[in-house]
Design a protein that fits this description.
By secondary structure, the chain is of the alpha/beta class. It is built from eight helices and seven strands, in the order αβββαβαααββααβα. The strands form two sheets. The chain has a five-stranded parallel beta sheet with strand order 4-5-3-6-7. The chain is globular.
């Protein structure tokens, strides 16, 4: 699963030189994400997902492990991203202009061996996505998706319905996108992410597989009792 993979990446990155997303090998000091305040070597990852594909739950599970950190929304127009920018002294414009500088300051507060973040569509301009994979860092690309497109669509519609204020003036102003449009957006997102840092070590996993592995691990724990 994702947790096992991230731990394996960390254990494989204990030497002074690591294979990187640009196909070469670099000393750890050359990684633009590495903070000089941390002497330990870090493993970084970016988890790409669409909303309501289960990535939020995946991050919560990852964060339960003492050696792993998965940050939530750091980019985009949401409140969590705005708080992250304010905390580090960035505006939306300056954050997009210096993605790696922002992440370096953010990861300086990460105390685990493996540090990563979750990215949803439209949180960063397409031409900025490659900035998440600077040379010398060996950033792992995790693509998290939901096999059941219908379930994802229904979850999206439910979230939109719950978010709409119960005011007569707003009735009918927020219409859900058609299912065919939803399928098209899913395909476009997958194509876009495939093109991001194509030489990076990539791991694809589904929400359904994630839940299955989680239930299997719980069953194993119960048997051990």
């Amino acid at each position: 699963g994702v947790v096992t993979l991230l731990l394996a990446q960390a254990n494989n990155s204990t030497s002074a030189r690591v294979a990187t997303s640009d196909g070469g090998a670099h000393k750890w000091g050359s990684c633009a994400l590495h903070s000089p305040h941390h002497g330990n070597k870090r493993t970084y990852f970016v988890l790409f997902a669409r909303p309501h594909a289960g990535a939020e739950a995946a991050c919560r599970i990852i964060n339960r492990h003492p050696e792993l950190t998965c940050s939530g929304d750091l980019f985009g127009a949401g409140l969590a991203a705005a708080d992250a920018r304010l905390r580090l002294g960035f505006t939306l414009a300056s954050q997009q202009a210096d993605v790696q500088g922002f992440l370096r300051l953010h990861f300086a507060n990460c105390t685990t061996r493996v540090c990563g973040l979750r990215i949803y569509p439209n949180q960063l301009p397409n031409n900025q996505l490659n900035q998440l994979f600077p040379p010398g860092c060996g950033v792992l690309k995790v693509v998290f998706f939901r096999e059941n497109a219908t379930a994802e669509y229904l979850a999206l519609r439910l979230a939109k319905d719950n978010a709409t204020p119960n005011l007569s003036a707003s009735k009918g102003t927020s219409k859900p996108i058609p299912f065919n449009r939803h399928l098209k957006l899913r395909k476009e997102w997958d194509t876009r992410i495939t093109k991001v840092s194509p030489r990076a070590h990539t791991f694809r996993t589904s929400y359904e597989e994630f839940v299955l592995r989680l239930s299997e691990s719980k069953e194993t724990a119960l048997i051990a009792l």
